[in-house]
Specification:
309 residues; mainly alpha; 3 strands; 2% strand; globular; disordered C terminus
Length: 309
């Protein structure tokens, strides 16, 4: 257990720092350049491992499902996060990222026929109240020009929620290494296309030490190693233990943001964080799945699959 808890703390530090790396990468790489670089760096780290294990892998893969997860979990979600960080600080972004399990539960109910309990619905409502507190009840921020920031970060969390449910439904029998590698490659393609259409990377700035550190930290550690650690905890501990990283990331991100970026931590952030955590806790309980095949079987499954970057 000591090793598992050490991995959990290490993962929260890596993923919390990812929000700082994105801030540093925005000037030289741009929004889609960040997606391209972090996905490519993560995939490059994992491809040699995939090659070594190629004989143990069933290559009859659900390619369409892998592409869908890559689009929503890597390409679109990470692009939206980078866009959000052009307007909000890394601490706020990490807190809004922690709402992912709430959106996962809602998407499971609407699209994948999960039956949510009364307790889960209460948790979802509490989570939304926490978001309002974080916004200082300025709901207008979600409309018009102010949508970029909090609104786009909530959309990114929704993308994570959809990708988690989709992975659970269609990729449950696919290797973790395969899922991680090929979704990162899909994200890299999306990032490259977006970068070519919008803004190119500034090559001169990529040579700066801070930029290189950000690419390695965000891509190799955040996107590559981080995913492997997450699934290590999930497999050798439990899904519940792995999911608790959701609670640790905002705390580590706030510390990193304060130390490295000089970001202030105001009372609304702390209060909103605690309320959102309460909502996440209540909404993350297991839920039943509707069975429409005429039988009376009712297997109980996890109401969501947390996916935090």
């Amino acid at each position: 257990m000591l090793r598992l808890y050490g991995a959990l703390i290490g993962l929260s530090l890596i993923w919390g720092l990812s929000f700082v790396f994105m801030k540093w990468l925005l000037p030289p790489a741009g929004i889609w350049g960040i997606v391209f670089l972090r996905c490519l760096a993560g995939a490059v780290m994992l491809l040699p491992i995939l090659w070594l294990k190629r004989r143990d892998i069933n290559w009859k893969l659900p390619w369409k499902a892998l592409v869908v997860v890559g689009i929503f979990n890597c390409g679109l979600a990470w692009g939206l996060i980078a866009l959000s960080e052009t307007e909000i600080n890394s601490s706020t972004a990490s807190i809004l990222n922690a709402t992912t399990p709430i959106w996962t539960g809602i998407i499971g109910f609407i699209i994948f026929s999960y039956v949510l309990t009364a307790r889960q619905w209460v948790g979802i409502l509490i989570g939304f109240f926490g978001i309002l507190v974080l916004m200082d009840f300025q709901v207008g921020q979600l409309f018009g020009k102010e949508f970029i920031g909090i609104g786009t970060m909530l959309l990114a969390s929704t993308c994570y929620g959809f990708a988690g449910q989709f992975t659970k439904r269609f990729l449950s029998n696919t290797s973790i290494l395969v899922i991680t590698t090929f979704t990162l490659l899909t994200g890299a393609v999306i990032g490259l296309i977006g970068m070519l259409v919008t803004e190119p990377i500034k090559p001169v700035m990529l040579l700066e030490p801070l930029t290189v550190l950000s690419i390695v930290g965000l891509g190799c550690f955040g996107s590559g190693l981080g995913q492997l650690i997450y699934f290590y905890i999930n497999k050798n501990g439990s899904p519940e233990l792995a999911a608790t990283v959701t609670y640790l990331i905002p705390a580590t991100a706030m510390v990193w943001g304060y130390v490295l970026l000089g970001e202030a931590i105001n009372p609304n952030v702390i209060i909103g964080l605690l309320i959102i955590f309460a909502g996440v806790y209540l909404s993350s309980k297991k839920s039943k799945v509707k069975v429409n095949d005429g039988t009376n079987s009712s297997s109980e499954k996890q109401g969501e699959l947390r996916q935090v970057k």
